[in-house]
Amino acid sequence: MTTPGVERVYYRLDRERETIVDKTHLPYALGAKRMQRWRELFIAAEYTVSELPSYELKVASNPFVTFQALPTSTRYQFMLDEAQFTIMNFIKGPVCRGQVALNVIEDRFWVFFLADADLQDQAGEFLSRESSLLALPAAQGSDAGIIGPWRKYAKLQGEYLQAKSQFLDRYAATNKGPNPEWIWNGDGNNPNAALTIFRHFDNASVVKGLVGGPPKTTWVIGYGLLERIHYLLVAGYDVYGNVGHQLLSRMYMDFLRMEGEFNFLTFLPRDERKKVSDYWYRGASQEVKNHVYGKLASFDGHSGISYRSKDAQRELYTLLQKRVAPVLNREYELAQVSDAALRKDLATLASARGAALSWFPEMVSVRLEDPPRAPRYFTLLRNTGHLSVSSLLREGRELAPAENTMTVVPGFIGAYPSAIYRLQRSEIKALAAAIGSLSAEEDYRALADRYVVRRSNPQFWQASDELQEAHLQFSPIGSGLLDYNRLENR
Description:
Layout: H1 32-43, H2 57-60, H3 63-66, H4 72-81, H5 83-91, H6 99-102, E1 108-113, H7 117-129, H8 147-173, E2 195-199, E3 204-208, E4 218-221, H9 223-235, H10 243-265, H11 273-280, H12 286-293, H13 312-324, H14 340-350, E5 363-369, E6 376-383, E7 405-410, E8 419-424, H15 428-436, H16 441-451, H17 460-474
Parallel strand pairs: 1-4, 5-8
Antiparallel strand pairs: 1-2, 2-3, 5-6, 6-7
Helix pairs in contact: 5-9, 8-10, 9-10, 14-15
């Protein structure tokens, strides 16, 4: 991060001439509407910039120092307007590659965003005061050490969480919170208000909407957290950095995940928070739990929600779904399947649970034949159960096979299909039964022999062309060619 050495920096747009591939495709629309929005946020807004920020590494790596002159609401809204794109920058970026990089998150979870205007204004002042605690690993450069810097950032994060807890206690004492009104509703027209993130072992996806049933965990993200995620994994991440830089970035992301989960916990009844947190982090050390809900991250105030059921977390999900319902993207919901009988069969397929799914691939693209109707495509996503996601190198010890689940969606999610299935409409129940009875590699091979279009199949490339064409039609702007590097050979 050095000064460009010129008075005026210019950017040039160049036509994309390479084949668009889904795994790195991040479209961002530019036009009169976008320019008007930027003028509204950055030009028409009233604020004063007395001096431009330094390009010195320790300053430029901390957005709360670099952009301190800009109003918090402006910085936050800029990222919120295209929240999926903001998160997709690391989901599809070089930082999000490999098992160790991805085992920092659950296999499926929902994301909501804080939007209470007064809360964000006061949070902006708080972040400015505590900006020294928000230093990020990029400040160490691309040749960072490990032990010393890690101890430093762990200490800073602990101090920040304690300060944030005190701030939240003070704010909640004079406001009715936390409650659904604190959650961004997309301003009534923006479907970025609710997202679902999937992990596919060594890669991930983020889509608009609340996909699947209620997940184990959920993140609630405010400006301070969203900005740090972006600077940690995108703006400040150096793919050519040394092991120290990359390891610090990965370990710091543990803190940010736990902070997003803590934000969600504050909406639950006070006596439920630790119980839910402990369930999320079964087997984790007390030191880890303290970052989620404990000595470091705490909230003594009551929720602003009057709960009526015994399952507060599920009730909260219902309230949050209602909050974002007017803007919720529903293209991945099985309710979009108009055929009631087919919808029922697909729901049976989606109800698969347990250890049998351990033998099933991460992501399967299904071509469903149902003459005389045109073929339809669905995606089957295996969600691997975990006791916790707090281990860097020992994920195997945290697996909870009994908690594996399946998500079935119309269309396509993910850039790396593990297998391509072709089945008749009448075979859905048989497939569901076969999946439920998997107990060994041989069982899956028998299933694959029946449904998988392997690369050795003479019709593979025809099936591939039809799949790719259907994918592009499903999302003409957002999609690209799928990558077959994860196609299994079983």
